[in-house]
Design goal:
heterotrimer, A alpha/beta (242), B alpha+beta (358), C alpha/beta (502), B: 358 residues, alpha+beta, Glutamine Phosphoribosylpyrophosphate, subunit 1, domain 1, five-stranded antiparallel sheet, 10 helices, globular, C: 502 residues, alpha/beta, Alpha-Beta Plaits, TIM Barrel, 15 helices
């Protein structure tokens, strides 16, 4: 089903989407989206929403399932506290992506802004994944408590990721294609060489990712990765006196 | 009429035609309206440059008065302080959602020679603005630059724009603001942009260093009567760039300084400059989350705080440079830009009028 | 006339617990414990320095005040009567150590700090960068640049600056007043934490020369140990005009404390009294101060900032302004609660003003005159905790000095008997067996830990204030509110009362 979002307020648009899903539609295509917030917010179920245009902030926030495909750039706050589902962005995105994300997948073709994956966390089988094809701003994986983030930096030779990578990280794992300047790492992070288990973890994810955007998997794998893990699960355990 | 400082949330949008092409106010109104949800109807405003080409050498004062008595008193003051070449009401039309506007009047002023024996013309105008805004509770200078003006008030920005008939103005630089204040507002002077001479600032965020920024500016004769952090930004640009003649790049470094960690990594000459700036201009550092657009007579500057806690997107299309809090606000008026990007923390985006543009 | 004064303290030894190891007896620097089949206190000698109690392995010792020694009288307190008796017996001037202990108002405890909620967000100090780096020294009002966009050159040459990683500096305490091991601990901690220690007026021991990048050397009226080499073995030079504990009077290190190394370092014969007169005899007016400032700048090739330390007195604002105009790069203001090795009690307890008020008045005055950039303000004389540091900086200080807090970190229990030279903790003594008790490495650890804790606490406060560089706090009195202060105090401090918004 197609919905023309031109000049629609976000509330009206999201109501229309929910009504369409409730009446049994599992495939929705939104045209002329520009700036409407909260698309897919809190939604669950086996639904696929394709967005043509630039969606507004908090895309897929609190989402519990559902697949969202954006055929453009997207803005700030994508996958805020997202629980499950998949979001695919055929463009670049803004800041604070995947804040507190606890499940599902977020695949971005291009660049990501500041504080991506901030406070992402995992619990038992809930392991969120963010993969971005381009570069990232500062504070990538800030406070990260769980999940998997992969940054590919395709088309960039250096400066793939900004400063303060993984600052406050105390869980999860980050893979960055190529080298990371140690001076850019947060003080709670260790940089390692990925091993066989790591490859077992990321190869299927990267194949899925490449499939979404038509990237050449071998080309992506032609460069090594740096693995970043937290030095401790209690980085501030020594800080206080009683 | 004046009330206490009001912390603000907000949306900003701005544009410049670097070739000096003047466009009317409809585009900027459409752009800021796209971010309606970022403001709450308690403040909206615009700055426009290049709008008075036939009087481009005169200071255009946009005034807000509580009543005609305040207007008369101020006009007496103007007669004493300036040569008033022309004055007229600022054209408005009634708009839903706009309540109790003040008396809005504009003046085209020249500074008499005999006032400039001991002071530069711009310092004189600056002092006059400070005096007006601090001496009267009922009169307020909304803008005081040449060939530019501020149009602001209490309401949603799109309604304020229509109220001021911005479709009738043509400018090569526009900036705009939608405000989300959290205190009791209701004061027209408290809306953005804040201005001084040619400087105008629209601002999204909050300057947590306001206390010291204010005391620092007071050392140099500025009077911050509005108790809003945005006013301080306008004056800091005036102090650093106009009065201290600090180059743009270095002025921006003072306001959104690199971290020591990064300064220590710089090449020696750069390191020396950055260190000296932080040592000397520490009190000018704007600390706290912000994205701002600064308009001035030759261009526009977009700037984020040094850890990028507020959003900003930029785009170029032909001779136009756009900056806004959200990409959608740009795409609504420029659906197919040549380039879209997110500026880095503390790194300015600069739009400058071509040399030939008058 | 063999009437003795009553004992101030009673040492209680629990003989059930005591296992007669005699450690307490060895510990006491004041010979207040003896062994007569069991540990036997001589109460009159006890100063409550707590060394014996701290080192008793069985926790068998407690020290209590001898409350009934003087019958209760609200007006004639035990202290007053004791002092009268002492003076009646000797005709002497009452001497005291450490700072003013009297219950004058503590303004730090009447100021509250702001925090962010929603409208201006706080910043997480653990994960986001948080900068405390501070430069002390004269700054110009503006910078001049040349060149084109992208290739700009700085034309202004800045005066020398003192770099601090934390805006807390160890206050001047001389070798002589305190032990070499205490001096070493201060120097090592200063180096480790990226800050400064201050030699005080007793010269610089040769073993500390390698710490010279973290040392401020002091020049006082006695000019002890002041040579060209001394001046240049430093990061900065300080002229001491006065100190908070004894404004307007000099110092006196008794000859008994001037033994081998102290004598060598001070460059005076062993056993001679080291007398620092009240005034510098080459400074009888402000232009003389200027002359000395520039004499020191010449002697150090204009390579170091020169500080002038003054005590907080009534006319401090005008004095500080004069000091800045005389060419000081740093003005150090010491409040009336500042410590000392020895001072006449009448001065220590009754002269001077609180540094909180002095600082506010000076910062205001320098701003009114447009010369606040010309010098940095270092203040001290009652900085007890990181909150005091935050409040001082918000009032306008560039950094603070800590003396008493540093000594407490190294073990001092504030018995206030520094002038006896018997410090059981090895701090304010030159007796070798006592000095040896203070391991300089352990002392440096304790000082560093203290500064580390304060540093984290200051960052927490900055984060809650929504700022990530200390310069955004400096002078930002808008972030302070008064509590329980009258209009006049609020006005002097330049802050609003709690409950008033922006």
């Amino acid at each position: 089903m197609k919905i023309d979002a031109k000049d629609m307020q976000h509330r009206q648009l999201n109501m229309t989407i929910r009504d369409a899903v409730e009446s049994g539609n599992t495939g929705l295509e939104l045209d002329n989206v520009n700036g409407q917030r909260y698309i897919g917010g809190g939604m669950d179920g086996d639904v696929k929403i394709t967005i043509n245009g630039t969606p507004g902030n908090d895309l897929g926030s609190f989402m519990n399932g559902t697949e969202i495909i954006v055929n453009a750039n997207a803005q700030d706050g994508i996958a805020n506290t997202m629980n499950d589902g998949r979001i695919i962005i055929h463009g670049s995105v803004g800041d604070i992506i995947g804040y507190g994300m606890r499940g599902g997948k977020l695949y971005i073709k291009g660049n990501v802004g500041y504080r991506v994956g901030i406070h992402m966390k995992e619990y038992e089988d809930k392991v969120p994944v963010i993969i971005a094809g381009g570069t990232a701003g500062d504070f990538f994986g800030e406070y990260m408590a769980g999940g998997i983030m992969i940054l590919l930096g395709l088309g960039s030779d250096n400066g793939v990721v900004g400063d303060y990578v993984g600052t406050g990280m105390h869980g999860g794992v980050i893979y960055i294609r190529g080298e990371v300047d140690p001076r850019d790492l947060g003080k709670e992070v260790a940089a390692l060489e990925p091993g066989e288990d790591d490859m077992k973890l990321i190869v299927p994810l990267l194949k899925e990712y490449c499939g979404c955007f038509g990237f050449d998997f071998d080309e992506v794998m032609s460069r090594g990765f740096t693995k970043l893990v937290p030095l401790s699960h209690r980085p501030y355990g020594e800080m206080y006196v009683y | 009429m004046k009330c206490d400082g009001i912390p603000s949330g907000c949306a900003i949008s701005g544009m410049i035609s670097e070739t000096g092409r003047r466009v009317d106010g409809r585009a900027v109104m459409k752009s800021i309206a796209c971010m309606h949800d970022r403001s709450n109807g308690l403040g909206g405003g615009f700055a426009a440059y290049g709008i008075y080409p036939e009087r481009k050498d005169q200071y255009a004062f946009h005034m807000m008065y509580d009543d005609f008595e305040a207007k008369e008193a101020t006009e007496e003051f103007f007669k004493e302080a300036f040569n008033v070449d022309k004055d007229e009401p600022i054209p408005v039309h009634r708009e839903n959602g706009i309540h109790n506007p003040p008396v809005l009047w504009r003046y085209f002023l020249e500074v008499p020679e005999n006032k400039l024996r001991f002071i530069s013309e711009r310092d004189y105008v600056m002092k006059t603005v400070m005096e007006l805004n601090s001496s009267s509770e009922r009169a307020f200078v909304a803008s005081s630059g040449k060939n530019m003006g501020a149009f602001k008030g209490v309401g949603y920005p799109e309604d304020i724009g229509k109220f001021y008939k911005l479709e009738d103005y043509r400018a090569y630089i526009w900036t705009s603001h939608g405000r989300f204040p959290t205190n009791t507002p209701g004061w027209w002077g408290g809306a953005h942009p804040f201005t001084l001479l040619d400087w105008s600032v629209v601002h999204n965020g909050e300057i947590s260093s306001y206390g010291i920024n204010r005391r620092y500016l007071e050392m140099f004769g500025y009077r911050l009567e509005l108790r809003t952090d945005t006013e301080a930004i306008a004056y800091l640009f005036d102090l650093l760039m106009r009065r201290h003649r600090i180059p743009l790049e270095q002025a921006v470094m003072a306001l959104a300084s690199p971290f020591w960690k990064n300064i220590d990594r710089m090449e020696p000459e750069q390191r020396k400059i950055a260190t000296a700036i932080r040592q000397v201009y520490g009190s000018a550092l704007l600390n706290g989350p912000f994205s701002i657009l600064i308009g001035h007579s030759r261009g526009i500057i977009g700037l984020n705080d040094r850890i990028k806690l507020r959003p900003m997107t930029a785009a170029r299309k032909d001779d136009m440079l756009y900056m806004a809090s959200e990409e959608s606000a740009i795409r609504t008026i420029a659906p197919d830009p040549d380039k879209v990007w997110s500026p880095k923390a503390g790194t300015p985006i600069i739009g400058i009028l071509d040399d030939g543009v008058e | 006339m063999a009437v003795q004064l009553p004992a101030e303290f009673i040492v209680n030894v629990d003989n059930e617990r005591c296992r007669k190891c005699k450690r307490c007896i060895v510990s006491c620097g004041f010979s207040a414990l003896e062994f007569r089949n069991k540990v036997t206190p001589i109460h009159r000698r006890c100063v409550a320095c707590q060394r014996c109690a701290a080192f008793c392995p069985e926790d068998a010792i407690t020290i209590t005040e001898n409350q009934m020694a003087y019958k209760y009288n609200y007006s004639w307190t035990p202290e007053i009567r004791k002092n009268i008796l002492k003076q009646a017996a000797s005709g002497g001037v009452l001497l005291g150590g450490m700072g003013n202990p009297k219950p004058y108002p503590i303004y730090w405890d009447h100021m509250l700090i702001d925090a962010c909620q929603v409208t201006n967000p706080s910043i997480d100090p653990l994960r986001e960068p948080m900068e405390l780096r501070t430069y002390l020294g004269a700054k110009p009002d503006t910078l001049e640049f040349s060149g084109e966009y992208g290739n700009v050159k700085l034309e202004t040459e800045l005066a020398p600056q003192l770099k601090l990683d934390i805006p807390v500096v160890f206050a001047a305490m001389s070798y002589g007043a305190i032990s070499l091991n205490a001096h070493k601990a201060l120097a090592m901690a200063a180096k480790r934490m990226g800050t400064m220690m201050n030699t005080g007026e007793g010269g610089l021991h040769e073993s500390l020369v390698s710490y010279k990048d973290n040392i401020i050397v002091q020049v006082a009226s006695g000019r002890f140990g002041v040579t060209g080499e001394y001046l240049n073995n430093s990061a900065a030079v300080e002229i001491k005009i006065g100190q908070g504990a004894k404004p307007g009077i000099g110092g006196h290190l008794p000859g008994v404390k001037v033994g081998g190394d102290v004598s060598k370092t001070r460059m005076i014969p062993a056993g001679t009294d080291a007398l620092s007169p009240a005034p510098h005899h080459d400074i009888y007016s402000i232009e003389d101060l200027s002359q000395l400032i520039f004499a020191l700048k010449e002697a150090t090739g204009y390579s170091k900032p020169v500080s002038v330390k003054i005590a907080a007195v009534h006319n401090i604002a005008a004095i500080a302004s004069g000091v800045v105009r005389a060419g000081a790069d740093i003005v150090t203001i010491d409040g009336f609660r500042g410590g000392t090795g020895a001072a006449p009690v009448v001065i220590r307890d009754h002269v001077g003003i609180p540094v909180e008020l002095a600082l506010a008045a000076v910062d205001d005055r320098l701003r009114q005159e447009g010369i606040r950039n010309r010098a940095s303000l270092l203040i001290g004389g009652s900085i007890r905790q990181s909150a005091d540091v935050v409040k001082a900086i918000a009032l306008g200080a560039d950094a603070v000095i800590i003396g008493t807090a540093a000594l407490i970190a190294m073990g001092c229990r504030l018995c206030q008997k520094c002038y006896t030279g018997n410090c059981s903790w090895g701090i304010a003594t030159q007796r070798p067996e006592l000095v040896n008790r203070l391991d300089p490495h352990a002392g440096a650890d304790m000082l560093s830990f203290l500064l580390n804790g304060w540093s984290n606490e200051i960052k927490e406060v900055l984060g809650s204030l929504g700022i990530n560089a200390v310069e955004s706090l400096r002078g930002s009195r808008e972030r302070l509110r008064g509590i329980g202060l009258d209009e006049q105090a609020l006005k002097i401090l330049g802050i609003k009362h709690a409950g008033i918004g922006q």
